C-alpha cells in the first residue's frame, strides 16, 4: 500500500519507486545494509571514550568533573555541526553528507597519532572533538536516511533495525580498548600511585601511546566503507514538488521558515527535550560504570572493570532486539513507557544498592536503553507533518545529543561534592524519570491517533 497522499515521482530501480514525500515503495536491501553498517562506527568511538576517561583520570591526575570534558568535547562537536550538516544535506544529498562524515572521522582518528606524542589533555580533547564533527555528519544524515529508505509506515522499525547494530560497534570499541589500551594489566592508578616527577611523566606518556592503537583499525574500516558508499547508487529520499513545467523538483524551505514551523510544534519540542535528557543519561551511566566498579571492588584491574561495559553493550543490544519485537506488535508509547519506568527502578538500585549489586544494576539498565534513541528520534520526526522540514528537524534532534556533554558534568560534580561515585548515579536516575514522563504523556496521543 502506498503512503497516503504521496505519489510516485520517479523509479529508483526496476521494482522500487521514489514517492513525492521522499519515502520509497519498497526498501532497497543492499543500500539499507550499507547505511545500517555505518551505525556501529559511531558506537565504537563513543565506547572508546569510556576507556579514555579512566586512562586520562590517572595519567593527567583529574577529578571526576574534569574527566567529563571528554564527553563535553565529543557531544559538543555533535551540537555545533548538526545544523551545518543539515544544510549540506539540503544543498547536496544524504550520500554526500555521509561520505563527508566518514572523511572527517578518518581525519579525527588520525589526530590521535600526534596527540599521543604531544601528550596533553587538551590535544586529546581536540582529537575527540574532530571525530565528533565527522560523527555529527554521519548521524544527522544516517538516522533520517535509514528511516526514509522504504514505506513510511515502517520508518520507525527501519531506524530501530539500523540502530540495533550500534551496540556491536560499542562492544568492538570497548574490546579494542580493553586489549590495546589496558593491555599492560593491573590497575593503572595503583601502578602510578607511587611514581613521582620524571618517572611518572615518562610512564604516563608510555600509557598514552597505547591510546592510538584502536584507531588504526577504525581508520582502515572507515576507508573501506567510504569506497563502498562511493560506488553505490543511493536514492534521494527527499520530498518532491511538481513545477509549472510539469517537472519534479526537491521541495525546500529556508532555515528561518523551518525554525518557525518547528517552534510551533509542541510535540516536536517535547521530543527534543526527551532526546537531550536521554542521551545525557545514557552517557553518564556508561562514562562512570567502570569507575563505579573500580570504586566498589578494589581487587579488580582496569581491564577487568571494562568487562562490565562489554556486558552493558550486550544488554543494550538484547534490549533493542526485544523492543523491536514488541514495537512490531504494540504502540510505541506503551512499549517505551514500560521500558523507561523499569529503567528508572533499575537505576535506583544502582544508586542505593549494596556492593556489587549496584554495578550489576548499572549493567542491566542498558537493556532499557535499547530502543530509546532511535524511537525518540523517529517518533519525534513523525510529528513533523511537512517533510520539507525533515533535514533540519533531524539535525536539531541530533543537536540534542549535547545532553551527553552536560549531564556527565553534573554527575562528576555530584561525585566530587559527595565523595561517592555511587550516589552520583542519582543524576541519571532523575533523567530516566523525565524520559518516563515523556513516553507516558505520549500515550494519550496514541489513543487519539488509533
UniProtKB/TrEMBL annotation:
Gene3D superfamilies: MFS general substrate transporter like domains. It comes from the Bacteria. The lineage of its organism: Bacteria, Bacillati, Bacillota, Bacilli, Lactobacillales. Its main location: membrane. NCBIfam families: fucP. This is FucP protein. GO terms for cellular component: plasma membrane. The chain crosses the membrane at residues 29-48, 68-89, 96-113, 119-138, 159-182, 215-232, 272-290, 310-328, 335-352, 358-377, 389-410, 422-440. The gene is fucP. It is found in: Cell inner membrane. Residues 31-444 form the Major facilitator superfamily (MFS) profile domain. It is a multi-pass membrane protein. Keywords: Cell membrane, Membrane, Transmembrane, Transmembrane helix, Transport. The keyword Transport applies. PROSITE patterns: MFS. GO terms for molecular function: fucose:proton symporter activity.
Amino acid at each position: 500500500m502506498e503512503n497516503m497522499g504521496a505519489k510516485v515521482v520517479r523509479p529508483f530501480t526496476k521494482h522500487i519507486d521514489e514517492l513525492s514525500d521522499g519515502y520509497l515503495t519498497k526498501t532497497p536491501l543492499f543500500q539499507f545494509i550499507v547505511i545500517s553498517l555505518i551505525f556501529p562506527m559511531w558506537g565504537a568511538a563513543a565506547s572508546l571514550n569510556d576507556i579514555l576517561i579512566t586512562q586520562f583520570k590517572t595519567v593527567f591526575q583529574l577529578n571526576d568533573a574534569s574527566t567529563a570534558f571528554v564527553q563535553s568535547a565529543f557531544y559538543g562537536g555533535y551540537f555545533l555541526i548538526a545544523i551545518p550538516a543539515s544544510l549540506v544535506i539540503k544543498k547536496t544529498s544524504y550520500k554526500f553528507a555521509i561520505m563527508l562524515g566518514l572523511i572527517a572521522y578518518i581525519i579525527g582518528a588520525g589526530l590521535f597519532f600526534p596527540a599521543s606524542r604531544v601528550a596533553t589533555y587538551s590535544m586529546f580533547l581536540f582529537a575527540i572533538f574532530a571525530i565528533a564533527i565527522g560523527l555529527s555528519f554521519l548521524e544527522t544524515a544516517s538516522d533520517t536516511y535509514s528511516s526514509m529508505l522504504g514505506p513510511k509506515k515502517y520508518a520507525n522499525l527501519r531506524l530501530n533495525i539500523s540502530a540495533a547494530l550500534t551496540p556491536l560497534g560499542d562492544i568492538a570499541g570497548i574490546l579494542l580498548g580493553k586489549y590495546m589500551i589496558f593491555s599492560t594489566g593491573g590497575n593503572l592508578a595503583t601502578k602510578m600511585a607511587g611514581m613521582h616527577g620524571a618517572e611518572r611523566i615518562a610512564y604516563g606518556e608510555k600509557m598514552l601511546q597505547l591510546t592510538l592503537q584502536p584507531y588504526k583499525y577504525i581508520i582502515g574500516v572507515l576507508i573501506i566503507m567510504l569506497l563502498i558508499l562511493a560506488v553505490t547508487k543511493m536514492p534521494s529520499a527527499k520530498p518532491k514538488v511538481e513545477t509549472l513545467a510539469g517537472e519534479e523538483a526537491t521541495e525546500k524551505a529556508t532555515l528561518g521558515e523551518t525554525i518557525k514551523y518547528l517552534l510551533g510544534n509542541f510535540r516536536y519540542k517535547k521530543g527534543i527535550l526527551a532526546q537531550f535528557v536521554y542521551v545525557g543519561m545514557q552517557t553518564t551511566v556508561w562514562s562512570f560504570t567502570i569507575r563505579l566498579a573500580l570504586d566498589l571492588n578494589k581487587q579488580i584491574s582496569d581491564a577487568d572493570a571494562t568487562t562490565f561495559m562489554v556486558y552493558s553493550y550486550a544488554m543494550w543490544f538484547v534490549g533493542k532486539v526485544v523492543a523491536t519485537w514488541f514495537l512490531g506488535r504494540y504502540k510505541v508509547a506503551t512499549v517505551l513507557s514500560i521500558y523507561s519506568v523499569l529503567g528508572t527502578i533499575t537505576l535506583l538500585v544502582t544508586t542505593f544498592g549494596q556492593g556489587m549489586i549496584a554495578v550489576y544494576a548499572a549493567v542491566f539498565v542498558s537493556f532499557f536503553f535499547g530502543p530509546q534513541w532511535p524511537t525518540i528520534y523517529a517518533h519525534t520526526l513523525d510529528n513533523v507533518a511537512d517533510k520539507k522540514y525533515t533535514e533540519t528537524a533531524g539535525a536539531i534532534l541530533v543537536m540534542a545529543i549535547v545532553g551527553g556533554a552536560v549531564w556527565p558534568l553534573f554527575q562528576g560534580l555530584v561525585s566530587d561534592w559527595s565523595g561517592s561515585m555511587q550516589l552520583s548515579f542519582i543524576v541519571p536516575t532523575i533523567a530516566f524519570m523525565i524520559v518516563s514522563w515523556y513516553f507516558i504523556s505520549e500515550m494519550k496521543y496514541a489513543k487519539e491517533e488509533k
